[in-house]
Design brief:
Serine Threonine Protein Phosphatase 5, Tetratricopeptide repeat; 30 helices; mainly alpha; disordered N terminus; about 75% helix
Length: about 550
Amino acid sequence: MTGIAQTVLSRAVLIQAVLGYLLMSQAEADALLLAPPAAWDGLITPMPPIDRSNLDNASIRHLDELRERVDRALAGGETPALVEPLSELCATYQAIGTRRSAETCYQNLRRIDPDEFRWAYQYAWMALRSGRDEDALALFDAAGKLRSDYPPLTLRRGEALYGLSRLDEAKAAFEVAANEPGLRARSQYFLGQIALLRRDYAQARDHFQQALTLAPDADAIHYPLAQSLRNLGERDAARTHLAQKGNQLPKATDQYAESIATAASGAKAHFYAGMKALQADDLQKALSEFDTGLRLDPDNRAAGISHARILFLSGDETGARQQLRKVLDSGHPAPLAAFLLGLLHDANGDDETAIGLYRRALQIDSEMPGAHHFLGQLLYRKGRFEAASPHLKRAADANQNNFAAQLLCWAARYQVGEAPNALIAELSHAHQQSPGNPMLAYALIRLLAVHGDAQRALELARSAIAVAPIPPLQAALGAALVANGQTQEAVQAITVAVDAATQAGNTAWATQLSAERSRAGSGPRPVTAWSADDPLFQGRIADPVAPFRDYPAGAAY
């Protein structure tokens, strides 16, 4: 044997010895995974170590830590303690592509926790990703028996049906999923593919164009769109899209599918620790944990948004903007990121950019109350009352306690000339439902004083002040007194409000009230109930602090 051959053979023997030692060391560390205790008979199938020769050191360490945690839980004999580490191990196997180990793991997990939707769904998702559409469909159907109200389930069933060429059923599923925020772009893409297969080129074009509008970074849409256009005779447009073709499909918001990558990366523990630190008001620790987690799981959209919120609350608005923009540029349908970035532009006076971002959020989630509220408020502030009104109404309808949106909605309708009697009827009903709300009382008194029953306005003003003698209600009392010809008392009531506004440094309101006081003494009765100078009826510039701190996120990571 030549020296070279001996060297090669020696190296091969050495490598085999090292691999054998590593596998033996791992087996010693997680012996119970190889031979589960008798208490787990019929529940846990042994899970031998996988070949880790193609994994990086960080992945190997993470895998070893997970197997050790599972081993300790097996030794403890308690099912609740086993579920979490075993689920992370399943996700890790799935993420690194060891399908058989992942299948064994999910089967174990479903036996010990058979009523949990997540494990059934993630097992089905793995089958779908690996092209086993028939298995995936059966598993999705099993998951649906545990929970039928998870919107991505309908989308994924549609994808499995599409893969099986059961196009009528797939089309029905995609049409349902297309109504859900975060699923629309992907659903429209598959609806386009079905129309293309059926040679309905106009329908296919429309679906693909809608998908591209919702997910402009999904360059895989361009090729089938080009096919549709070419068959419709639109050859120039077809060539334009053909030049932009790629492989990125529209993404779907699917927290259970996305959580697989998070668990596999080891990032979950850092995100959890970050949220705990945030609850304890330790912003620096929260930032540190999310920084670490995002290095491990950089594509975690929900965590990226949470990170941006923490950055803003810690004073780094520039960092928050960059993080939100990164999420939006990733191609994920992320209405919350668009909404929060819109708030930052709104607060800084960049109105048109803010309007565009709010509308982008609503294009994905048409029911998003926060985007409706702040978009309506901004449009109102710019004097675009007719456009503002429906957004303010949607915000108010979503939360019956959102009186600010209610009032601005009424004011917008008033500004475009809607009949005061209709507004009086609505305001009266709202006031009856919330009689202790001074904002509603103030608005109703002023409206009645100019357009309705002056005596009723005065009675309402006196009863409201008896409960809450605040300056705005003093001003409203003044308006009611003017309407009833009691000018001297009106001047006194308005003076109380003027003095309060002056002391509070609200110069604009003090000036407006002073002019109202002068008219009360000698001028004609007002013809406008809700003055544009009245601070209650002015669209405020957005303050992002409360939404960044409190607006619900669905999932934090």
